[in-house]
Amino acid sequence: KMKYDSSAPKVKPLVMGVLNVTPDSFSDGNQYNSVESAVDHAKLLVLAGAQIIDIGGESTRPGADRVSAKEEQARALPVIEKLSQSGIPISIDTMRAETAVLAIEAGASIVNDVSGGIADDLMHESVAEMGCPYILMHWRGHSKDMNSRAIYTDVVSEVISEMQSQIDLALKAGIAR
Question: Please, which residues bridge with residue 124 across strands?
Fold first, then answer.
């Protein structure tokens, strides 16, 4: 089990603004479908207090269809390239190692992987090679079948156990704690 480590460094929480450049995301789908509108919205998020902008090019809302890596990249990378010129810290919301690498090259500085490395066997290795911060989330499956997999006997202990397994794999791949 994961336990609270009182010796861990104390850090100040940060506010992350979410920017979905997709036509079908549950919160802001199809609102920011041009580079200009997406960048303008990101700047508004910063004015409202966001310290990091999380950019996603693939919807993970329940029931969403997956898009190709090329489509995800075509949506997200131009926004990252343009927004990174302003100096705003950017994370890429992706489950694909290839997209993560291209996003970091385009100016993102953080990889936010909702699958925690499960969706792409190369994710942990790629993040370790890049040496960037990595957000590892709990995940049981793609959007099409996520609801049928969200069945728990003891949700807290099962999530902790599943997260610990992915954390162990990430550390083994060389991602810094």
Answer: none
Q: Are residues 81 and 92 in contact, defined by beta-carbon separation less than 8 angstroms?
A: no
Assign 62 to helix, strand or coil. coil
CB within 8 Å of 4: residues ≥ 6 apart? none
Q: Residue 23: name the closest of 69, 56, 46, 1 by CA.
A: 56
Global pTM exceeds 0.90: no
The per-residue pLDDT for range 70-102, each reduced to its tens digit, is 999 999 999 999 999 999 999 999 999 999 999
Nearest to 78 by CA among 130, 42, 24: 42
Which residues 6+ apart lie within 8 Å of 108 measured at CB? 55, 80, 84, 90, 91, 92
Structure tokens at 54: 């999380």
145 vs 156: CA distance, rounded Å:
21
Q: Which amino acid is residue 51, in one-letter code?
A: Q
